[in-house]
Design goal:
With 406 residues, the chain is α/β, with parallel strands linked by helices. It is built from 13 helices and 16 strands. The strands form two sheets. It has an eight-stranded mixed barrel. Strands 10, 11, 12, 13, 14, 15 and 16 form a seven-stranded antiparallel beta sheet that branches. Strand 5, helix 6 and strand 6 form a beta-alpha-beta unit. It is elongated and about 85 Å long. The model has no long low-confidence stretch (mean pLDDT 89).
Length: 406
């Protein structure tokens, strides 16, 4: 389609609204504005390409954006002014006129009853280049007006978190559409977990978009999503919908999510209990003053069905033993290179040490990627004295075979 055709027929540019639902209320809390063009044949075409094409003059793109936003605001004020309205905007266009176009538009509608706190200005993270870092002052001013800032496609390409800490957006959008139904890469889970933790510290809300499958919805829920968007829940519509439209499907899926998480927790607790009982029984038969390497070989043999590595550390993170590792033949052997390594830098190391001292029992770690094997594992740690602890690594193959351990 020729951009000039669009410019000459702005009355054919029509707004659609994709619902955004909230986890806490299970209701529609807002809409993202989508721009379509209605052809003479009655077909509607998305105009994303028009706004992304940098060869189209800025004035043209601003005029079309303003046109579609005006139509949306007119409809918004006539219907439900209590929901959020998300406006996707090009950061470069915002930079070009220092936000004058969008702010003038919104402030002109404020006198008509528009609550600026219900407007969310949505920018692509990748468009926040070094040049537009100067937008920070503008962002601060926009926030003083009550307008919210959202960063879209966070972590999709670079995974850098510096922009988030610098700009502190109100809402962080993560796209899960690239995660396939049968493969949710754990590395992305690690990235999104980091973003989730950072968002929590900043007081930002996580919004997962592109949700087209049950698994993607579950993934978003497990990674701290408060808001959800995608055709699995709701497609774009030319009008707003009832706020409770998607409540039943959300409550049904949330019940399934919770049921599965409870099953996982029970499986992990059962594994922890089984290993702890085996440890206690095995350690009773070991001389407390026996060499560390003798202890880990004995533990390794006793736990051979579900372990591939055993070692001992002190409460400062220094490895006191070799690594006892199971070879391909299933036999345990000592790897002395591990002795005297310092593991205090590892996340949650000291938290686990303190927990073991207080609770007087072993701890099963979350899933994480083992550097040497490049696979997801869990580690079971157990206190054998006041300042000595056994660590036992459980391989992916075993976790995969047991329901609820992945």
């Amino acid at each position: 389609m020729d951009p000039l055709d669009i410019m000459m027929n702005l009355d054919h540019v029509i707004p659609y609204y994709q619902p955004i639902v909230s986890a806490d209320t299970r209701k529609v809390i807002g809409y993202e504005l989508k721009a379509y063009y209605l052809t003479e044949d009655g077909e509607k075409q998305r105009l994303d390409w028009f706004f992304k094409d940098s060869s189209i003059p800025h004035d043209f793109r601003l005029e079309v954006i303003t046109c579609i936003q005006q139509k949306a605001l007119d409809y918004y004020l006539e219907t439900d002014k209590t929901v959020l309205l998300f406006f996707s905007y090009d950061a470069e266009l915002l930079y070009e006129d220092d936000g004058e176009t969008i702010l003038s538009l919104l402030q002109s509608y404020e006198s008509k009853g528009l609550d600026l706190s219900k407007i969310v200005l949505e920018l692509k993270e990748k468009q926040i280049t070094e040049e537009v870092y100067s937008l920070n002052s503008l962002f601060k001013y926009i926030k003083t007006l009550g307008i919210q800032i959202a960063f879209d496609d966070v972590g999709k390409t670079s995974g850098n978190l510096d922009k988030l800490t610098y700009f502190e957006p109100n809402i962080i959008k993560i796209d899960v559409s690239f995660l396939k139904e049968d493969a949710l890469p754990h590395l992305y889970n690690d990235v999104h977990y980091s973003i989730s933790m950072l968002a929590h510290k900043m007081g930002s809300t996580l919004l997962f978009k592109g949700i087209s499958t049950y698994n993607q919805f579950n993934y978003a829920w497990r990674n701290g999503g408060r808001y959800y968007q995608g055709r699995y829940l709701a497609k774009s519509n030319p009008q707003f919908v009832e706020k409770d439209t998607y409540k039943d499907i959300m409550e049904r899926d949330f019940q399934l999510f919770v049921k599965y998480e409870k099953k996982k927790m029970k499986a992990q607790l059962q594994l922890t209990t089984d290993i702890q009982q085996l440890f206690k029984q095995t350690l009773q038969d070991i001389d407390a003053n026996a060499p560390h390497d003798e202890i880990i070989i004995t533990i390794g043999n006793a736990c051979s069905p579900f372990a591939f590595r055993v070692y001992i550390c002190n409460d400062e993170g220094i490895q006191l033993s070799s690594n006892a590792e199971k070879n391909r033949e299933g036999n345990w052997e000592l790897i002395p290179e591990g002795r005297q390594k310092n593991w205090s830098w590892r996340p949650y190391f000291f938290e686990s040490i303190v927990r073991m001292n207080v609770e007087k029992k072993g701890i099963l770690s979350n899933l994480y990627t083992d550097i040497d094997r490049n696979e997801q594992i869990r580690t079971y740690s157990y206190p054998i004295s006041k300042n000595k602890y056994i660590f036992m690594d459980i391989p992916y193959d075993y976790l995969f075979e047991q329901e609820g351990l992945l």
